[in-house]
Amino acid sequence: MAESIERFIKEREELNNIVLEKGGKTIKRFFNLDTNAYKDGAFPAKIKESLGLVASMVLRCDDCINYHLLQSRKEGVSDEEMDEIFSIALVVGGSIVIPHLRRAYAIWEELKTIQY
Amino acid sequence: MAESIERFIKEREELNNIVLEKGGKTIKRFFNLDTNAYKDGAFPAKIKESLGLVASMVLRCDDCINYHLLQSRKEGVSDEEMDEIFSIALVVGGSIVIPHLRRAYAIWEELKTIQY
Amino acid sequence: MAESIERFIKEREELNNIVLEKGGKTIKRFFNLDTNAYKDGAFPAKIKESLGLVASMVLRCDDCINYHLLQSRKEGVSDEEMDEIFSIALVVGGSIVIPHLRRAYAIWEELKTIQY
Amino acid sequence: MAESIERFIKEREELNNIVLEKGGKTIKRFFNLDTNAYKDGAFPAKIKESLGLVASMVLRCDDCINYHLLQSRKEGVSDEEMDEIFSIALVVGGSIVIPHLRRAYAIWEELKTIQY
Amino acid sequence: MAESIERFIKEREELNNIVLEKGGKTIKRFFNLDTNAYKDGAFPAKIKESLGLVASMVLRCDDCINYHLLQSRKEGVSDEEMDEIFSIALVVGGSIVIPHLRRAYAIWEELKTIQY
Amino acid sequence: MAESIERFIKEREELNNIVLEKGGKTIKRFFNLDTNAYKDGAFPAKIKESLGLVASMVLRCDDCINYHLLQSRKEGVSDEEMDEIFSIALVVGGSIVIPHLRRAYAIWEELKTIQY
I need a surface site. Which of D36, D112, E54, E99 has the fewest CB within 10 A? Predict the structure, then answer.
């Protein structure tokens, strides 16, 4: 059932290892900046993940969407909240977001079957 | 032969079912708006599908391209007309459209082998 | 001081009047859908404006950014929260977001000088 | 009244002269390819301009939109047809297309006041 | 080991054959223009491939990235140079480039195992 | 004559001052990363500016293009080399790059009239 998200997590980790082994200073610093941007601050991490998710959806990046869906699940985003994030992404980005929206709904359902 | 387009249609339908089951009011209304935009009007549906296709190509959305290719076939777009849609998409969008153009030509040929 | 945002509001209104006078059913329904997407729901309007803002920034749409900055100001987004929205937009969207970020910081300061 | 479109045409011509004076073989050949793509073929020039316009709108290029609006006017696109092109562009591209849509409606009205 | 890049080359060739068999004059001329743009000139082909690669990365086109990685390898781009191309692509394009960056690092390593 | 580029430089500096005064840690670190990415390394600064320029052109960011044109001029990019950068940007990004290309040619000519 939860195969596709687990395969995604595994592949992401393997490829990240190559990047962090081979990548130079700019790459490593960027990855650091990226990680820190989603930590609790004036906004809690949950809202920041929602911001990262809506940005990923309008830019139509499936891997980025999957990652922020996973983090959103961990941070306790509810179904109703997720539907509102999806709605704003769809209205802002238009029908070209739909293929990503379809996959996002399926991944979101799948995430409910996983224990952390 | 026509396996790839049929798998696309089946997956699209399955995922659409999840969206329409789980999605709220904004999502459903958007899907409605999207469907209605391509119906016969001042322009016939055939031309509207061509407009949707060229938009999908320059935005580089494979699923959107496949769907509008399928509809264009049903609406009777000819090979010569399709070549002109492809040409405008390529000139407007540039060489980054080429990977999508390659797949679109292959799907277009495949669609000729299917009966509706 | 606050001239540029007031000119933006005035021009936006004038042009919206043309769209709503001339635009057909699809255009009007879309505008409706767009307005409703940012109303209080599972997320308060303030968070929804933040979602709309980050989406507008990564898609690099100055008019959309200005509008959501204005709404964010009305909904009480703080300077610290705004800095976090800007940071996520910059990290997700990269240095091509910087010209829009520069203008957004200036508009945000300008908005503090206006009474509603 | 028709000042903004006439200024656009003049500036476009002046800048095109620089490009064609300074640009090398690839630039010149591309410009040639671009011009030929919109000539009468299996589709009449009018439909090709509509295809170019919808592509320009979803890619949010104001200069490209202005140019294709001008050509569409010359080719006899009706108000009803233009509304359908605008509707498809808005549905496909989402609310980030709206600022361009607003300006496009205004230019389209302005074009009606010009004699060729 | 080097399976994924070889499968990419084979599929690309097969699909290109369809395009060149079915495509009209505009398509063929564009392909020609595209090929010529990367030949030795004021800049050597190696630098031109680097330009094509960075453009492909910020536009997030995996097939384009793979092709320019392959050509860059043939033209003798070093690991240090590749890391700088990747760094600029990441800084300009932002974190949405990361999924493509991950795959690009893996393909770049894979290319070292192939003889031409 | 050289007014437009000088106004660009002045406005950019004024707005950057606001960003660096108001912006938090993530913003400042990103600006730092951005500056460092274009310094001499395995590739000389001149080539890195060319990479930044082509990326800015295909992403259609006028401010980014102006900045890299200015830096390219300082690093000694020749007219022939600039024409090749422009050609690759045009072929990769398509005709929607043309409005930016037109302005870039004009700015490039203007830059020749300025002493540093």
Answer: D112
By Cβ distance, the residue of A91, A96, A102 closest to B30 is A91
Tell which residue, B68, B93, B101, D43, has the closest CA to residue F94: B93
Q: In which residue are the tokens 């001052």 written?
A: F17
CB contact under 8 A, F91 and B95: yes
Nearest to B27 among A60, A80, A87 (CB): A87
* pLDDT at residue number F2: 61
Could you read off the pLDDT of A72-113 as tens digits, one per residue? 999 999 999 999 999 999 999 999 999 999 999 999 999 999
- The pLDDT of C13-36, averaged and rounded, is 96
Facing C91 at nearest CB: one of E58, E92, E94:
E94
Best CA proximity match to E101, nearest among D10, B51, A23, B58: A23
Residue E114 pLDDT grade (very low, low, confident, very high; cuts 50, 70, 90): confident
- The HSE-up count of residue E49 (CA atoms within 13 Å, CB side) is 21
pLDDT digits (tens, 9 = 90+) for B72-91: 999 999 999 999 999 999 99
* DSSP 8-class letter at C75: T
Hey, what are B61's tokens?
């959305």
ipTM associated with this complex: 0.95
Contact E89 F55 (CB under 8 A): yes
What six digits make up the tokens of E74?
């043939």
What pLDDT does E84 receive? Answer: 98
Query: Which domains does chain D possess?
Result: 3-111 (1.20.1290.10)
Digit-coded pLDDT (tens) for E43-70: 999 999 999 999 999 999 999 999 999 9
Count contacts between A and B (CB, < 8 Å).
52
Residues B15, A106: C-beta atoms closer than 8 Å: yes
Chain C neighbors of A45, CB-CB under 8 A: none
Q: Which of residues 19-58 of D touch A (CB under 8 A)?
A: 58
The residue type found at D91 is: V
Displacement of CA B5 from its chain's centroid (Å) = 11
At B2 the pLDDT is 61
pTM metric for this prediction: 0.97
Which chain D residues touch F109 with a CB distance below 8 Å?
18, 22
Look at residue C114 in the predicted model and tell me its pLDDT: 83
F84, E55: Cβ pair inside 8 Å? no
Q: In whole angstroms, what is the distance from residue C93 CA to residue A55 CA?
A: 8
Tell me, letter by letter, the H, E, C secondary structure of chain B: CCHHHHHHHHHHHHHHHHHHHHCCHHHHHHHHHHHHCCCCCCCCHHHHHHHHHHHHHHCCCHHHHHHHHHHHHHCCCCHHHHHHHHHHHHHHHCHHHHHHHHHHHHHHHHHCCCCC
Chain B residue numbers touching E23 (CB-CB < 8 A): 83, 86, 105
Q: What pLDDT digit, counting tens, does each position of B21-35 carry?
A: 999 999 999 999 999
Chain-wide mean pLDDT for chain D? 95
Q: Which residues of chain F have pLDDT under 50?
A: 1
Beta-carbon pairs below 8 A across chains E and F: 84
Q: In this complex, do B19 and A109 lie within 8 Å of one another by their Cβ atoms?
A: no
The 8-class DSSP code of residue C41 comes to S
* Cα separation, E48 vs E68, whole angstroms: 10
A92 to D90: CB separation less than 8 angstroms, yes or no: no
Give the CA dihedral C73, C76, C81, C86, nearest 10 degrees.
-20
Inter-CA distances, A114 with A52, A78, B65, D33, Å:
22, 15, 34, 54
| pLDDT, tens digit (0-9, with 9 covering 90-100), for A50-62 | 999 999 999 999 9
